[in-house]
UniProtKB/TrEMBL annotation, chain A:
Classification via HAMAP family: UbiG
Catalytic activity line of the entry: a 3-(all-trans-polyprenyl)benzene-1,2-diol + S-adenosyl-L-methionine = a 2-methoxy-6-(all-trans-polyprenyl)phenol + S-adenosyl-L-homocysteine + H(+); a 3-demethylubiquinol + S-adenosyl-L-methionine = a ubiquinol + S-adenosyl-L-homocysteine + H(+)
Keywords: Methyltransferase, S-adenosyl-L-methionine, Transferase, Ubiquinone, Ubiquinone biosynthesis
Protein's UniProt name: Ubiquinone biosynthesis O-methyltransferase
GO function term, MF aspect, one: 2-polyprenyl-6-hydroxyphenol methylase activity
Task performed by this protein: O-methyltransferase that catalyzes the 2 O-methylation steps in the ubiquinone biosynthetic pathway.
Binding-site residues, S-adenosyl-L-methionine: R40, G71, D92, M135
Pfam families (UniProt xref): Methyltransf_23 (PF13489)
The protein's Enzyme Commission number: 2.1.1.222, 2.1.1.64
Entry's Gene Ontology BP terms: methylation
Organism: Cribrihabitans marinus
SUPFAM superfamilies for this protein: S-adenosyl-L-methionine-dependent methyltransferases
UniProtKB/TrEMBL annotation, chain B:
Gene3D superfamilies in UniProt: FAD/NAD(P)-binding domain (3.50.50.60)
Family recorded in the similarity comment: Belongs to the UbiH/COQ6 family.
Keyword entries, A-Z: FAD, Flavoprotein, Monooxygenase, Oxidoreductase
Domain FAD-binding: residue ranges: 18-355
Gene Ontology MF: a single term: monooxygenase activity
Pfam family, one: FAD_binding_3
Record's protein name: 2-octaprenyl-6-methoxyphenol hydroxylase
Top-level taxon in the UniProt lineage: Bacteria
One BP annotation, GO: ubiquinone biosynthetic process
Cited PROSITE patterns: UBIH
Pathway stated in the Swiss-Prot or TrEMBL entry: Cofactor biosynthesis; ubiquinone biosynthesis
Amino acid sequence: MQAPQTTVDPTEIAKFEAMAAEWWDPDGKFKPLHMLNPCRLDYITAQIAAEFDRDTAGPAPFAGLRLLDIGCGGGLLSEPMARLGAEVVGADAAERNIPVARIHAEQSGLKIDYRHTTAEALAEAGEQFDVVLNMEVVEHVADPLAYLTATRQLLKPGGLQVCSTINRNPKSWAMAIVGAEVVMRWLPRGTHEWSKFITPDELYDLLRRAGLEPVDRKGFVFNPITWGWSLSARDLSVNYVTASVKPAG
Amino acid sequence: MDNPESRGILRVMNDASRILIVGGGLNGPALALALAQGGHEVTVIDALPEAQRETDDFDGRAYALALASQRLLQAVGVWDRVSDQAQPMLDIKVTDGHAGAGPSPFFMHFDHAEIEEGPMGYMVEDRHLRRAFLAAMREAPGIRTLGGAKVVAQEAHPGGVSVTLDDGTVLDGRLLVGCDGRRSGTATRAGIKRTGWEYGQTALVCAIEHDKPHHGVAHQFFMPPGPLAILPLTGNRSSIVWSERTEMAARIHAMPEPDYLEVLRPRFGDFLGRIGLAGGRYAYPLNLTLANSFAGERLALVGDAAHGMHPIAGQGLNAGLRDVAALAEVVTLAARRGEDIGAPDVLARYQQWRRFDTTALVLATDAFNRLFSNDNPVLRLGRDIGMGVLGALPSLRRGFVREAAGLTGDLPVLLQGRPI
């Protein structure tokens, strides 16, 4: 059997494999992701609710939706989506994350289909989803356009993709690399390569070229006073997120 | 969601997110109602049998509900059940007095006309609140109450928490909430230590009947042995909270009724006419106790279990209901995001929201009490002048009025009278 085509850079996978075991400790190595998570979930749940006309105050609001979480890691997004009733496939290119995520889902009483695979392999296998979560992945891939094209193929017509990444400018270099990796040591040094960061306009352009229709973008803004993250309609200068749909026709 | 079939689905879907509340006093039921409204399945474990909570005899206990607390009761469907028996507090008069010597010339007068929201708060008797909570819980979908059940063990594990009752029943949940008072067994079993001290004072609590109407005015007198509050109840009745040094309080508490009244009468003069006791008499030794943490592994502490404070400003229940509103909001928003409601990062949000606020309030009421429970002439002059200054500055006073009504700070939506 032929090995799946992949655009994932192998050195990137190795970096994350080294970090896998501590996924679920909110004060551990993934503290920054745990801190950002409520804000990411607020955006994702609001976008899904709007696109598929669901009420998150009701029971199992995402029932009937098939959802793919690319780069699922320990399951920080997969578990909430499953808890909201979605049928979740969690995919990660780092093999070691899969058992970690599986054990945790079992402890939480959740049924999630975790797979050691890539977006490209899933697309090739003809898998189809209502929602694709593509969070903090695109800045780690070798060929963003090829990768985003694969994520578009994974969507059913009318499906929704939520994609977040980091902007490329002097501020994002100062915050994401100097701040998060060097000063705060939130992330291991070398987690990010600044040259791979993508501006919001570049991402919109890439999404369109991949055959998706961008519909919304917001910034994730860190407030050093409250020590927490919030969504911003105007400030996309460092971390930001986009929503796009696959045209129905 | 009105048809029974969809409610059935709700039950199944939320079963994994069941929340276990220990304590059936006032905060426990308030939290159960707020959480049930947010779509959660809740079990309330109460050491007292329901029949005992249900009694209608007036036992003399009453609460001063701040306006924000009244809004929470409204939002969870309890207020309409007690509003007929609630006495609005229209004014609060604070004065520095010497027993027998009458009040000092400097008055502080907090008038509800200074805030737009209406009365500053309400006095509601314990019996009416208890019965209203029980009735509301019976009607709310998703609430199960276990009366006369004691918790003997609790254990947190990665996916949830288990509680063992004295009859051997084991209950599972995602989150355990201790609403079991200042000697919280829930906190103790979780190994959460407390900081605190004794005041050497005891609060004497009783209700009185009087000849003259109170006109909805609450009075607080500051006397050297401790503060005395006269809080208006419905009709010509008032609730009295009266602090004395513990030895003296024990003697007064043991006195026969006529002698008790003889001691009480000169302390606030004769503006209410002849007085007589209505309901029982209580003595509560005053101590301050603050849990070192408001959250543990799959555990949150609410009300006196988190913070037992000096009842000087009637802030105990109001602070508890703030915890209730904050925890219900944190947990409900977390559930809507799909988060695990018992996860440490979710509980840290509750702790962060409430602990600073509470610690500030506990220390403020403590400092307030130390300042006023004192016969040092310098402090006395200082506080008389302070009251005069406060009385002369409307904007500063308005701030105090809003604070007393519970309308300041980062307010949970339930305290604004809105659903989550």
